[in-house]
Amino acid sequence: MGYNEKERAFIEWYPRGYGVGFKVKQRIFETQTEYQRLEIYETEGFGKLLVLDGTVQLVEVGEESYHEALVHPVMLAHPNPRRVLVIGGGDGGTLREVLRHKTVEKATMVEIDEGVVEASYLYLDVASELLDRLIKKEEPRGELIIGDGVRYLKETDERFDVIIVDSTDPVGPAKLLFSEEFYRSAYEKLNERGLYITQAGSVYLFTNELLDAYRAMKKVFDRVYYFSFPVIGYASPWSFLVGVKGDIDFRKVDVERGRELELYYYDPERHETLFQMPKYVRDLLERA
């Protein structure tokens, strides 16, 4: 896994020998943060590539294919999302998409690794202007907190309309963010009508992790939905799980608000297509 200098390529290897790779021009930055190894590469065709502990987080050209799918379905399904919490997402892309919604009065991002925020601000063309305002505390509707999202959610007195978890894959240290205990904390901190969303890994290659997270969420939320989306740079299709508190129907979104956003990847007018899932995976989920 990683950078092959001879081939001038970066490859992330998934289970069973499946790989996703990019031809790269050069590695422009690398460091060991307090929590993980961080690398940034200049690719041949997709702009800069952000890598954490050997796993692809995003490429500049196409990162919206992830951030739009993570943010806008839940934001448009909620009738009036005013207060939003983002856990993770240190590159700023998720918060950038959240703040495109005019209804949002306050959005808080809790990122454990300050090194990710700093590197994204300095090197990536994703949300550098937003990160600059957050760092300087000049963003009127946004707040950046460097800290443990699990602890923050457990201890905060605030309540949210939407909680978005933009974490690394549901394996290793990030497993805490996919635990029943964490889901209960999230449910408690949602308002009476609220939505929770998390990415849940590759449909084909992290199927067991998807099933585990789905089972845990079913024990906590009033209803749980699953969907998938093709994400550039990942072993797609990529899965997402949505937990509902209250009487919100995630199968329906506000198309008019969606049109105002002029999105590039996610199409609110074809929201129903999100729910397409390979038959055997759907069968496994339904049995769960």
UniProtKB/TrEMBL annotation:
Complexes and interactors = Homodimer or homotetramer.
Select a single GO molecular function from the record's annotations and give it.
Answer: spermidine synthase activity
UniProt keywords (A-Z) are: Polyamine biosynthesis, Spermidine biosynthesis, Transferase
Q: What does this protein do?
A: Catalyzes the irreversible transfer of a propylamine group from the amino donor S-adenosylmethioninamine (decarboxy-AdoMet) to putrescine (1,4-diaminobutane) to yield spermidine.
Pfam families named among the record's database cross-references: Spermine_synt_N, Spermine_synth
Q: What is the lineage of its organism?
A: Archaea, Methanobacteriati, Methanobacteriota, Thermococci, Thermococcales
Q: What biological processes does GO assign it?
A: spermidine biosynthetic process
The entry sums up its family as follows: Belongs to the spermidine/spermine synthase family.
Name recorded for this polypeptide:
Polyamine aminopropyltransferase
PABS domain boundaries? 11-245
NCBIfam families noted in UniProt: PRK00811.1, speE
**Catalytic reaction annotation:** S-adenosyl 3-(methylsulfanyl)propylamine + putrescine = S-methyl-5'-thioadenosine + spermidine + H(+)
User: Which organism was this protein described from?
Assistant: Thermococcus aciditolerans
Q: Which gene encodes it?
A: speE
Q: Where is the active site?
A: D166 (proton acceptor)
Under Enzyme Commission nomenclature, its number is 2.5.1.16
Entries under InterPro entries matching the protein:
PABS (IPR030374), PABS_CS (IPR030373), SAM-dependent_MTases_sf (IPR029063), Spermi_synthase (IPR001045), Spermidine_synt_N (IPR035246), Spermidine_synt_N_sf (IPR037163)
Leader sequence residues: none
Q: Could you say which residues bind spermidine here?
A: H67, D91, D166, S167, T168, D169
